[in-house]
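Archive record:
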Amino acid sequence: MMIQVILFGYFLTCVSGDGVADVVLSCTLVEEGVGVDGMGGGSQFRRTPATLILRDLSVAPDQSLETLTPFVPPSIPDPDAILFEAKVSSPQIPDAHVLLHADCNEQEVTCELSRYSPHGPQEAQEATHFLVSLSVEGGEFSTAFILQTSVVERDHSTLIQNKLGLPLSPSGTLLTEVIFLVFSHIKSVSARLRGDVLLSCGFRQQETPLAQEVAVEWRLQHRGKGWKVFEMKTRLDDAEGSTVVLAERKGSSVNASLVVGRGDASLTLSRLNALDEGTYICTVTLGPFNAQQVIQLHVTQPPEVSLSEEKFVLKADPPQTLSCHCSNYYPLDAQMEWWSLSPEDSEPKLLLDQGSLSSHRQHGDGSYSLSSHLSVPSSVSPGTRLTCRVSHQALDAPVSLTVVVESPTQGSYWWVLGFLLASVLFFHQVMT
């Protein structure tokens, strides 16, 4: 049976003591019920109100606690109420202070909780565990952590939570502690084509180590396919020769020293190409426990824009062609427009005839190029400004390049006349 807690965005910050505070999350417990066929098919989810209390979050010295209300458990414990009480002082949740300001910043907080079954020693399996995924809108805070239920001495007066079957504390809460967590400082990253990027992922564990062996795996999912990018196994006691690395993607790396010393499992990717774009999953395994973070990588490259002519001098028929080249951009979508501003106009106008577009050309690094060709008739007024405007998601603002239509210079008329006269004389001599 799967149980999930989903937070709908309402929470309360409470004072707990000097330098720490509690955050109370209003949640919904979701159980996967038995389906109509009696075997889970077509199952319906049952939702029950639940509460998650994060105890002892660190508060910055400049954070005022005067307006915070202490969390008060119910005066009469209710075995039907689902109150998870989690102490998060060790290990501390990085960037958890964001939760204290999320309400004021009108940021939605999302939390999911499900039962977790560790793999490994029997003592780890005897306790009850929950996996909590917690994030704040905007992508600046995201973590997944393992809660382990604390031992509650049972006697004839001990209350049992009716739905979960777990003993309650005297205050009516399910006492738990954070024993292992994986976090990321940012959920979505944009990086330039052919550049480098660092994808954030780290982990923490309780003071009493769960295990000395740690494994880090990075996988990439994109367009329905998935593959391993990088894998590392090492020991936190930094035993010599204990690190094993498998880099499936050339130019991918994780710093083993940072993994051991700081719990930093961030992935570096060098020389990005279009195939590197997608959803990255960082999985950290510590003994019988593992947790994940998901980071979205967007690869972008702004276009290089150029015109075929630096000077545009009118000539006689046939019409001349002015080309605008949009080169080496990613992703595919780029918009090209031609605008005109004649000497008689005060504002530029979008040309009705937008010319013709070439087919997209894709290069080895995945970038694209596109050209637009505008036919300029000889009837265009000298002094007219022709502008090619290019829009692309990698640009902060459209790029515009302009050329001014010039009338033929006097010298060009004499050159043409001389050329015609010389041609007539040449043909006259040939004929005679």
Observations:
- The mean pLDDT is 84.
- The longest helix spans residues 410-431.
- The CA atoms of residues 224 and 278 lie 10 Å apart.
- The chain has four helices and 28 strands.
